[in-house]
Design brief:
The radius of gyration is 12 Å and the shape is globular. It is mainly alpha-helical. Helix 1 runs antiparallel to helix 3 and helix 2 crosses helix 3. The protein has one domain. The protein has five helices and two strands, in the order βαααααβ. The protein has a two-stranded antiparallel sheet.
């Protein structure tokens, strides 16, 4: 199984200026860099520090990740 950042969060980074600005301040990166990270679906956006940021901004654990692939037994 692979845990990808949810399309809901990626779309919000790309479309919500205030959210992407707050995330860029949190990451200590330029806003255009954060937008590029979202377009590339970068692993940087899935680190524990960022997960806490999403939770602080109202996202539940289930909303943060899209799970791809099936668990094989």
């Amino acid at each position: 199984m692979k845990y990808l950042l949810s399309s809901k969060i990626l779309n919000r980074i790309l479309s919500d200026n205030e959210f992407s600005l707050a995330l860029s301040l949190h990451l200590k990166k330029k806003q255009d860099t954060v937008i590029r990270l979202a377009k590339r679906e970068s692993d940087i956006l899935r680190l524990p520090e960022q997960i806490n940021f999403y939770k602080e901004n109202g996202y539940q654990q289930e909303e943060i990740f899209d799970i791809v692939g099936e668990k094989s037994e």
